[in-house]
Amino acid sequence: MDIPTQREYIAPSASGLGTDGDGATVAGNKGSSGEDGARGGRSGAGWSNYPLYLSRSIVSRTGDKPGMARIILSFLWTLIIAGMTACGSEPSNPTRDTVMVPMRDGTGLATDLYFPGSGSPPYPLVLIRTPYNKEWMPGYGQYYAQAGFAVALQDVRGRWASEGEWVPFVHEAEDGYDAIEWLASQEWCTGKVGMVGGSYSGTAQFAAAILKPPHLVTIVPNVAAAMPDANIPRDGGVLALGWALRWADIIETARTGHDLQAKVQHSIQADWTGPLSGLPVIDLDRTIVGREVSYFRDWVTHEPGDDYWDSVEFLEGLEQVDIPVFLQSGWFDPGTRGTRLAFEHLIRGGNRHVRMILGPWAHGDRGRRDLNGIDMGAEAERDLMSEYRKWLEFFLMTDAHDVADEPGVELYVMGRNRWISGPEYPPAAVQIRPLFLAGAPGSEAPGKLAWHRPTLADAADVFTYDPSKPTPSFHAAIKRGALDEYRARVDAGNDVLIYESSPVDEPFDVVGPIKMKLHASSSAKDTDFTVTLYGLTPKGEARVLGLTFGILRARYRDSLTRPSLMDPGTVYPFT
């Protein structure tokens, strides 16, 4: 397993979680998840001669102490709600107007305009496009208007006061382009437009920027997922079933801000094992949402590589984006991989104007140091809204054409509770360290994670996976505070292999992406392989390292666009 490390700091962690080197261990496990109906069977992994590369993601298969579960639950809840509602700005005197912005097909998108209470036009414009109801977000309009911007809060196509048909993500590129150009042409606008916003609003910024609207100067997407195969709605070729249905339920049935908050809380705290176990999968929208949801059914039926996804595939397109981009996410944000992938593609395309901040936060735009009573350190407290505003001021209110004097990349090392920074990600000083799976896991003891290549050749460990009894999600257990229940289920099952390192007696950091390389066979023609990485304290308590999990459907091992079933019993490489 290759772990990028940097010795100046402390921390065995997949995403920057620190430890002081007092004998903590690193553990990982491997299993299969049948969340959307993968085929089962006996699977074997030939581990001894192959390095396990700790990866960008990792799906959870081990427990954590209840206290940490409660911490993360509260943290996710606080930041999600904060990011969707208002900025908490104090009352001010910006003026507000509402217009219908015309799209190229004649559809009108409802847009609330906020103007500074002082000064005179024209003003540079900040645009926020949302599916969550612009009426719930006046704080954002007031905040940026107080700073001297005109602000446009816009309901996306088919949502709330806007016209047209609601199909998530599909129209955001052309609609974003049209909105930018129409607003920039108004007499009260200087012609300089910046976009800001998180989650769906961040993805909408990527979509619009790829089309290169002439008046779009900069974007500030935060906690934005990668589409459509690396985060949502599919991950490693597997439908993110839990996310898809919970999000559809929130977006389709929440009619007020209070409803939205209640729905989000329920989506985090409820046990979804039963509701998600029904078959056929395509009818689960009737169970969860109460009716058929057309786009959910599209996500189920359209496999990776299908032309359906062309309009929402933005990662490759980001290589053509050359305007300044400010990315922000957190180690506990489901969109953190999307943020890092966006950074990778922007840099690959030669964009010199990219900034990225990854902190000890979840899904939102608040940089808080407190995780429900656990202090993540004074340096974790950051006024992200102020940083977004300063970035927008720099590019929209001056004649600047280069990035402000800020580090290109800032990463928070949890445990050590300090930032490291530099011009690139992963940091140039990292060393790649492999960890190997060695020693067969037994009923009484886990297998071994070794820092040196094992000498035993052709060894294989075996587990049995039954898709009618899917392995539970570690991430879901964290969110609803059910890790004891989860751990009991995993310890009693034969569908998971667990590997554990010896105590780590020398401090080090894990600050780069983590990748796993697996060689495995199966008795089935197709199955899903999932991996989780986590830490252990000297007392044997699991220590969450961020969202360090990943999944891959076997047929997509070589390509997401050219699936290939396995020959039972044949060993294949998976990354």
Please supply descriptive tags for the structure shown above.
single chain, alpha+beta, ten-stranded mixed beta sheet, eight-stranded mixed beta sheet, 12 helices
Overall description:
With 575 residues, this protein is α+β, with helices and mostly antiparallel strands. Helix content is 23%, strand content 25%. The protein has twelve helices and 29 strands. The strands form six sheets. It has a ten-stranded mixed beta sheet with strand order 5-6-8-7-9-10-13-14-17-18, sandwiched between helices. Strands 2, 4, 20, 21, 23, 26, 27 and 28 form an eight-stranded mixed beta sheet that branches. A hairpin with an 8-residue loop joins strand 20 and strand 21. Helix 1 runs antiparallel to helix 6, helix 1 packs across helix 11 and helix 5 runs antiparallel to helix 6. The longest helix has 19 residues. It is globular and about 75 Å long. The N and C termini lie close together (11 Å). The N terminus is likely disordered.
How do the helices and strands line up, and which of them pair or pack?
Layout: E1 3-6, E2 25-31, E3 41-46, E4 51-52, H1 66-84, E5 95-102, E6 108-115, E7 123-130, H2 138-146, E8 150-155, H3 172-184, E9 189-198, H4 200-210, E10 216-222, E11 234-235, E12 238-239, H5 241-253, H6 257-269, H7 284-288, H8 294-301, E13 325-330, H9 336-348, E14 354-359, E15 370-371, E16 374-375, H10 384-396, E17 409-413, E18 418-422, E19 431-433, E20 435-438, E21 447-450, E22 460-465, H11 474-480, H12 483-492, E23 496-501, E24 509-510, E25 518-522, E26 528-536, E27 542-543, E28 549-553, E29 572-574
Parallel strand pairs: 7-8, 7-9, 9-10, 10-13, 13-14, 14-17, 21-23
Antiparallel strand pairs: 1-19, 1-24, 2-23, 2-26, 3-22, 3-25, 4-20, 5-6, 6-8, 11-12, 15-16, 17-18, 20-21, 25-29, 26-27, 26-28
Helix pairs in contact: 1-6, 1-11, 3-4, 5-6
